[in-house]
Amino acid sequence: MALLAVVGAILGAASSAMATDAGPAPVPQPHYQACHSLLVDSAGSAGVVQWNVRNLAQLAQRLTQGEIPASVAATAGVSTADLSARSWVVVRNDIQSLTVCDVGNTRTDVEQVADLFAVGLLDFLNNEAAAFQTSRISNAEARISDAQACRDQAQSQIDEMQAIDPLADVLALEQQAAACRLELNQANSDLISFKSDGTPTVPIDTLQYAQATQITESAYKARLRAGAAGANVIVGVGDSTSAATAPASRSSRTPIPDGPATRGALGFGAGMGAALAFVMFTERLDSRLRSKEDVESIIDLPVLAEIPPLSRSERGRTNIICVDEPRSRSAEAFRALRSAIDYANVIEESRGNMGDGAHVVLLTSPAPGEGKTTTLANLAATMAEGDRRVLAVNCDFRRPRLHRYLGGDTQPRAVNVTDVPGVQLVTQVTLDDSAASPSEVVWAQRELVERARSRFDVILLDSAPVLTTNDASDLLPVVDHVVLAIRSGQTSAEAASRAAELLERRGKSPLGVVLVGTRDVPSSAEYYYEDGDPYLEPTRRRGRRRAERNDGSSRRAASAAGVMAES
User: H or E segment at 512?
Assistant: First the structure.
């Protein structure tokens, strides 16, 4: 590190001493940013029907794809591709807000584009609500017409039969006419209710209109690069503005002092400072969580279990380690997680905080790829080891993967038998989760949990990452415990803290953390087991293969040494 600082100082002095006099600095072109903030007020007023806008991720998608950006681009006189590169949306699930931002070279342009996006979204949602109102009134009127025709037809047939024979059996027709009148009354009631409710209101208000601020050229170019790469939606907690809001420097460039000695001295100081700053920056740059101590000190949550990393051959498989290698280090780690959850249940039951029926545990993570699905599948297998009835529910309907681990049938809206004894699986709570709206799927998942409590001992929910969607937050009212999966060396301290804070704000503080892929787990895999234990055969085979490879390498090295000695 010291050598790096000295080299930086020498290079700075040399480059400054050899620099020629600088001419007048060119006048930089100004760049601006403007953001329009929208707030979702889901509480609303009593008696007012609201249009469902709770899925902020879906609203952000409408702002960045489809007819809204196309309309804004046409009004602003730019291409859709250019508009996509310079604009983005910040989603704040914690305070239910959307902020749409734009960058450009004039104040007027960026303010106009940001405001146009907000107006376009409101118009789109109002048109959706109006079309919904028109559709349900039309459907009610069609039901009224059909019920009236049904009633009149049945009554006409009754009159004809009684005209011929006053004692004719018209009971079936009278029942049909009564059913038609019942449907007619219900349709009339629905029509009156729909008209009384009126068109659903869109519960979105402007929190702040767009106001342009000057930004640096580097921030402007960084935004264009991010937009060109498709990074148009940012999920944030805390200050929703991006790094692009840094104000541009207004000071003019100072000419390089005359004289090689003066320049050399200044360059030496600047080079030394830059080298020292680089050294300190590289030491503090990596904020990823790697150990149990990192997790517990930064996000103040206990580590319930430390899962060892998978081998290279195991990463591509979807087998359940607790079933295939029940006495491996990984299996013991999953049993430690099971014990931690069981102990928490005992404590809550002693305090009178647990209701009757199954214990419901939700497993989520800050972001995708943290290992939550693998953890849940193995946890389900360990929970079933004690003859408990375990139900695993795939609640990550955008990326369903749980069935790949548990196997068995994948019938929608059914409790499927898996390849793991004692574990049953629900893959889809609707006929097609991918086609249903997120609010419908989450409502069906909550209803399933309530119905299944009396039939199972444990219910495990594999939810979507908490920082990318709102699904996990919507499931919290039916959950007893939340466990957060964090991958060692991948999850940043900021993401983990934001996930824990978001769950806490929703009234369900995580029970603890599962640290996946940590290398700090003790390596005494076979300490407690006798030789010849069949459970250890897979582990022993790998050990024998490594030993054979090492012996082969040693023999080849010895042979080569003998050949070299003979020559």
Answer: strand 512-516
Three-state DSSP class for 108? helix
Query: φ and ψ at 311, to 5 degrees?
Result: -75, 170
Cα Dmax for the chain: 126
Three-state SS at 520: coil
Q: Using one digit for the tens of pLDDT, what is the confidence trace for 193-236?
A: 888 888 988 888 888 899 999 999 999 999 888 888 888 888 87
The Cα 383–Cα 302 span in angstroms is 21
Three-state DSSP at 68 gives helix
The bridge status of strand 31-40 relative to strand 97-104 is antiparallel
Structure tokens at 353: 């905080």
**374 Cβ contact partners less than 8 Å away, ≥ 6 residues apart:** 405, 516
Cα–Cα distance for residue pair 494/492, rounded to 1 Å: 5
Residue 462 three-state SS:
strand
**In this structure, is the dihedral angle defined by the CA atoms of residues 337, 342, 347 and 353, taken in order, positive or negative?**
positive
Q: Which of 151-155, 211-215, 309-313, 357-361 has the lowest mean pLDDT?
A: 309-313
Phi/psi at 416 (5° precision): -95, 145
- 98 in Cβ contact with 232 (< 8 Å): no
> What does R_g of the chain's alpha carbons equal in angstroms?
33
The encoded tokens of residue 513 equal 């953390």
Length of the chain: 567
Residue 553 has pLDDT above 50, yes or no: no
Which one-letter amino acid corresponds to residue 13? A
Handedness of CA 41, 46, 48, 51 (dihedral sign): positive
Whether residue 43 has pLDDT greater than 70: no
Q: Are 112 and 76 in contact (CB under 8 A)?
A: yes
Give the whole-angstrom CA distance, residue 79 versus residue 73. Answer: 6
Q: What CA–CA distance (Å, rounded) separates 554 from 537? A: 25
β-bridge partners, 484 = 364, 513
Q: Is the Cα torsion angle 522, 527, 531, 534 positive or negative in sign? A: negative
The whole-angstrom separation of Cα 214 and Cα 244 is 10
> How many CB atoms lie under 10 A from the CB of residue 206?
14
Please give the structure tokens belonging to residue 505. 């704000």
**Threshold 0.70, pTM exceeds:** no
The identity of residue 465, as a single letter, is: P
